[in-house]
Amino acid sequence: MNLEAPADHAARALLGMWLVREGVVLRITEVEAYGGSGDSASHARHGRTARNAPMWGPPGRAYLYFCYGMHWMLNVVTGPEGEASAVLIRGAEVVAGLETVLQRRKVAKPTPQLCAGPGKVAQALGLDRTFDGHDLLVPGGLELRPGTAPAGILAGPRLGIAFATAEDQARPWRFADADSRAVLQPKALSPL
């Protein structure tokens, strides 16, 4: 997989990859791509800040931010180093470590939506600010590993970006595994 590719291309390639930490393995089922300063939906739209600095690379690093004062959100940095872009991990399926995920999520039993939502993904992996800037491509901590690519991919507009321009709101930069139930609002997506 080429994480130096533009965010929308890297996003599709991330589907099916595995996120691994402390015995928990999640298969990525839903993602959203965010470009640099030219993407009004991106955290990079106002330039580099202390909060968004990991977006400038190198690719393969984690970019974590705290959303609504409640949830950590995991992004994989993509694109050439020095050009901000990242892919938000919106959803995943549990491959291994279900008991740990249930404990971290404070849920009694699994459902297909157990890790459908970016806050749920970070919670399932036990992530916090200490993983911001973490290299996902080296062993230890949190790792991104090859997985099983989806047979089909759905695409549509990104969620929760009402502040962005109409053009950026309409970009079909949300991608999902067509066969997974761990996807939010799948009816808003169409086959690629």
Task: Pick out its properties.
single chain, 192 residues, alpha+beta, 3-methyladenine DNA Glycosylase, Chain A, 4 helices, 15% helix
Explained architecture:
There is one protein chain. With 192 residues, the protein is of the alpha+beta class. The chain has one domain: Roll (3-methyladenine DNA Glycosylase, Chain A). Helix content is 15%, strand content 27%. The chain contains four helices and nine strands. Strands 1, 2, 3, 4, 5, 6, 7, 8 and 9 form a nine-stranded antiparallel β-sheet that branches. Helix 2 packs across helix 3. The two termini are 19 Å apart. Its EC number is 3.2.2.-. Keywords: DNA damage, DNA repair, Hydrolase. This is Putative 3-methyladenine DNA glycosylase. Belongs to the DNA glycosylase MPG family. It is an enzyme of class 3 (hydrolase).
